[in-house]
Amino acid sequence: LSICFRTVEPLEYYRRFLKENCRPDGRELGEFRATTVNIGKSCCSITTADGSALVKLGNTTVICGVKAELAAPAVDSANKGYIVPNVELPSLCSTRFRSGPPGEEAQAASQFIADVIENSQIIAKEDLCIASGKLAWVLYCDIICLDYDGNILDASAFALLAALKNVQLPSVTVNEETGLSEVNLKQKNPLIIRKHPVATSFAIFDDTLLIVDPTAEEEDLATGTVTIVTDDEGRLCSVHKPGGSPLTGAKLQDCITRAITRHKEVKKLIDKVIKSIKPK
């Protein structure tokens, strides 16, 4: 009977749970799904990537591979490199996506990640410059969803951060006489990660009720969503709210407070995994 009711009246079905301050999957309103992260070659056989990570948020599974290439800096940013993110939501991850050019949701997710990189200053683009006006690193960050069950933004931001922390770049110098670049593959250095931005997403039910880490079904039934990005110092990097129900100042502050707590959990998880894969 409950399966039929859920199919015919999904919103009403959810409301019955929300009245009891819980959700159909057994979680409390402020509870995240089980979160795991695997970093580097242990997580995925992307041998061509300079850094990689796989993140699972409940059933939502995202992989991020970072590929570094050399290029000339832009004329107006002679001392800066580039970071180029791209989020893919292929048809294999969910029936809601079709094959072909990136859809609206994938484009919005790519823009969100680009904003997080810019606003948080996760990496100073000056750190990617090898020789001013001559040579710089370009980091192509490809984030691919393997299984979609909601909250793609949190999973993507987490996978990006974990993959960037795994990147090792070879030592590169520019020969003054020939003007050619010389790459030393034996000497590799990690990226300088200046900030650790973490995204925390909420779904808004019936214009007032906030639930954290929504599933795909919960996103469909919600009257709005909001994603808060915070850094190591608990500073607000960005608030992403694509329309929907407005939030009062008090509700928004509640979201920020919860996001700061979530940041500590995610940072702890990444640190633990990185420590475990470092050679003893």
From TrEMBL:
It is found in: Cytoplasm; Nucleus, Nucleolus. One of its GO terms (biological process) is U4 snRNA 3'-end processing. InterPro entries: ExoRNase_PH_dom1 (IPR001247), ExoRNase_PH_dom2 (IPR015847), ExoRNase_PH_dom2_sf (IPR036345), Exosome_comp_Rrp42_subfam (IPR050590), PNPase/RNase_PH_dom_sf (IPR027408), Ribosomal_Su5_D2-typ_SF (IPR020568), Rrp43 (IPR033196). Pfam families: RNase_PH, RNase_PH_C. Transmembrane segments: none annotated. The keyword Zinc does not apply. It comes from the Eukaryota. Residues 32-170, 197-260 form the Exoribonuclease phosphorolytic domain. SUPFAM superfamilies: Ribonuclease PH domain 2-like, Ribosomal protein S5 domain 2-like. GO terms for molecular function: mRNA 3'-UTR AU-rich region binding. Belongs to the RNase PH family. This is Exosome complex component RRP43. It comes from Fregata magnificens.
